[in-house]
Write a structure and sequence with these properties.
Layout lengths: L11 H21 L10 H22 L1 E2 L4 E5 L4 E4 L2 E3 L1 E9 L3 H17 L4 E2 L13 E8 L4 E9 L6 E10 L2 E2 L2
Antiparallel strand pairs: 1-5, 2-5, 3-4, 4-10, 5-9, 6-7, 7-8, 8-9
Helix pairs in contact: 2-3
């Protein structure tokens, strides 16, 4: 016998078994992470946030400091760099100059205040980064990461010497290689 009942239908037990098997397949796919919708942020969305956050913290620093030059953007975060496999990364860079007081104190305050401001926007200090944290006399860097948007942002303050009266405050950022679609 082929398993088909007298009227051309599957017996009730076979129908229940098929429904259970289909449910098990759906559950297995869900548990294994296979789904039709990819997870994580899109590259372009993170790039827009990256540029906005970098410009925002630069504006905040201008409000607190004594700027002598405008904030100059050298990479605006709009150019995608392909990482292959339908993924891309974006970069941002900008800088401005400030009049400062005692160099070692001011560099630490500047980079730490930027990190504190960005904490409200989802950033934490990126301890695992091998970025130069500086010599504390004329150069200081603070690497940050936003794990949700996968943006890496570094605030750097540099003075020409221990007795300099100005500092160059810079922000550089990049996204991880993220999906484009």
């Amino acid at each position: 016998m082929s398993g088909i009942g007298r009227r051309g239908h599957l017996p009730r037990g076979a129908v229940r078994l098929s429904a259970c098997a289909a449910g098990a397949v759906v559950l297995a796919l869900a548990v294994s992470g296979c789904s039709s919708s990819p997870s994580g942020p899109k590259a372009k969305d993170s790039a827009v946030k990256m540029a906005a956050d970098a410009r925002w913290v630069a504006a905040k620093e201008r409000r607190y400091g004594k700027p002598t030059t405008p904030f100059t953007v050298t990479q605006d975060g709009t150019k995608a760099v392909s990482c292959g496999h339908d993924k891309a990364s974006y970069s941002f860079a900008g800088h401005q100059t400030f009049t400062i007081g005692p160099v070692d104190t001011y560099l630490n305050v500047t980079t730490s205040s930027s990190a504190g401001l960005l904490a409200n926007r989802g950033y934490i200090v990126d301890i695992g980064t091998k970025t130069d944290n500086g010599d504390y006399d004329s150069h200081m860097s603070k690497p940050l990461v936003n794990k949700k948007t996968r943006i890496h942002l570094t605030v750097t303050a540099t003075a020409s010497s221990d007795h300099a009266s100005t500092e160059v405050w810079a922000v550089t950022a990049h996204t991880d290689c993220l999906r484009t679609g």
